[in-house]
Design a protein that fits this description.
Blueprint lengths: L2 H10 L3 H9 L4 H8 L5 E2 L3 H9 L5 H13 L3 E6 L2 E6 L1 H20 L1
Antiparallel strand pairs: 1-3, 2-3
């Protein structure tokens, strides 16, 4: 069984609320990373702890690195240096994506 199959099996055997929480936290990590980078430069190494402090869950470090890589590659965050360390800040494209997600989420909540 592959890792993806194991992950899907775990999700399929979860209670609905636990599955929902899992998919809107680590399953959509980009939302939290972009929101951190809206206001200031964020050092890559502090992402997981800031997410825990602000949003109440601790994402896997490897997953954080993968999402940061993808967000950079797609132009949603830009690399900067902050206090001599690799850091990032949300780009205009990243801000637009986050606003789109907020709009969609608000509309969905109204329908629910």
């Amino acid at each position: 069984m592959t890792i993806k199959e194991k992950d899907n099996n775990i999700l399929n055997n979860m209670e609905p609320i636990k599955r929902f929480v899992s998919t809107i936290t680590e399953g959509n990590l980009w939302i939290y990373i972009l929101s951190l980078g809206l206001e200031r430069e964020i050092q890559d190494k502090e992402v997981a702890s800031l997410i825990f402090e602000r949003f109440g869950f601790l994402p896997n470090d490897l997953l954080v690195k993968r999402v940061l890589f993808r967000l950079r590659a797609d132009g949603y965050i830009k690399t900067e240096k902050f206090k001599g360390e690799k850091a990032f800040k949300a780009t205009e494209a990243g801000k637009k994506e986050l606003e789109g997600m907020k709009k969609y989420s608000g509309e969905l909540l109204q329908k629910l």
